[in-house]
Amino acid sequence: MEQIETVVVGGGQAGLSLSYHLARLNRPHVVLERGQIGQSWRSERWDSLMFQFPNWSIRLAGYGYQSDDPNGFVHKDEVVRFLEDYARLTKAPIRCGVCVAAVRQRPQSPGFLVETSDGTFKTDNVVAATGSFQDPLIPGVHAELPKSIVQIHSSAYRNPQQLPQGAVLVVGSGASGVQIAQELNESGRKVYFSIGRYRRTPRKYRGRDIYWWFGALNIWDRSIERYPDLKRGSVFTVSGVGGGRDIDLRRFPEEGITLLGRMREIAHGRITFADDLEQSLTLGDAWFADLLEQMDDYARQHGVDLLEEAAPERPPSHDVGREPILELDAAATGIATVIWATGFRYNFNWVKVPVIGASGEPLQQRGVSPCPGFYFLGLRRMFNLRSNLFEGVGEDAAYIAKHINARKPADVLCNRLR
User: Fold this and answer.
1) Contact 220, 395 (CB under 8 A)
2) Domain map of the chain by residue range?
């Protein structure tokens, strides 16, 4: 049995960030990664994915992405290379190809036992840095689709060529759903797109990227405790494709994509949708108008280097001259594939410690669980909107590292109890 003070589970941006901060505090630790560094970027993203934030935003503690085009957008493979470079430069004690089977509390003493494919670790602290994107979340209605229709989750989508010939129904209007729908449409496929919560957002405004604007307006730093509504749905959708794109769903019909409301039911090959498409688009427009007003107010108050710019043109309402589609016959429309871009759910089945709620949600406050010595890191919106982004995860990692540094080793606590 190997003994070490802290075991970090996950070798992506979260685990590597924590390793950096623990090393600066001279705290012994090991990072265990089930695959390779940045495994989810390698195996759970489509082939053409471009990072949705500008190159200058790709930075972890002590190191930033090196690029001749700081305002450009890189391919996902470059993100993997950045993580590999970071692990090498920081000399992270990472062990790849090690799967964690279970984490248990040590019997009759503080600390934990971490059971892995490479043996068992005895440790004082465990940090689950496996992120939020774990098990694909697919609605139960999927079972009602005809067996002839291919169904895949967005995490398994790679390119249009992997799909059978025919039309595609994409369900879910987050970043993945939007970009996959556009790629399929541009490849010549007929695309039906079922959307939910949507907030129209400009890629750039007054010469600055939306990532910069979210920082200037302190949106990134809004805490989940003060703004609980931030836990619901996507806050915004933009794309890094083609040097960066605005995502305006009202223009999708002009491009040939058929917009639909939320999926409701499937029966006998017929798929029904809620009559809420125009409502979703209108709410997205309202968010857009409010955001423009905030940006213009900021420009008036701090107008250094901010260009004058007219508000982007708004296309006509989607419902002008047409009735919403509330039902599709899968066979008649030629739908051969359904792509579920419906997000993920947590899977902490390997955590045998009382830190998981009844719904599978991690119990934590900024990563600190109710069980002394057990932590979470890299969760989506764990503390604020940046908690699973490169910059934000580093801040949370520093917080957890300080918390670990302030703890007494479990063996010392055990001896005192005796």
Assistant:
1) no
2) 2-134+346-417, 136-340
Same fold, 2-134+346-417 and 136-340: yes
> Helix 76-89 and helix 13-24: axis angle, to 10°?
20
What helix, strand, coil percent values describe the chain, rounded to 5?
A: 30, 25, 45
Per-residue pLDDT of the chain (418 residues; tens, 9 = 90+): 899 999 999 999 999 999 999 999 999 999 999 999 988 888 888 899 999 999 999 999 889 999 999 999 999 999 999 999 999 999 999 999 999 999 999 998 889 999 999 999 999 999 999 987 788 999 999 999 999 999 999 999 999 999 999 999 999 988 899 999 999 999 999 999 999 988 898 999 988 999 999 999 988 887 766 666 655 655 578 888 988 888 899 999 999 999 999 999 999 999 999 999 999 999 999 989 999 999 999 998 987 677 777 666 665 554 444 678 999 999 999 999 999 999 888 899 999 999 999 888 899 999 999 999 999 999 887 888 888 888 889 999 999 999 999 987 654 444 443 3
Sign of CA dihedral 230, 398, 379, 237: positive
With CA atoms as reference, report the closest residue to 14 among 363, 364, 375, 346. Answer: 375
**246 Cβ partners below 8 Å, 6+ apart?**
201, 202, 203, 238, 312
User: What is the CATH T-level fold of the domain 136-340, as seen in this structure?
Assistant: FAD/NAD(P)-binding domain (3.50.50)
CB-CB contact of 390 with 12 (8 Å)? no
Q: Which CATH architecture has domain 2-134+346-417?
A: 3-Layer(bba) Sandwich (3.50)
Predicted TM-score (pTM) of the model is 0.90
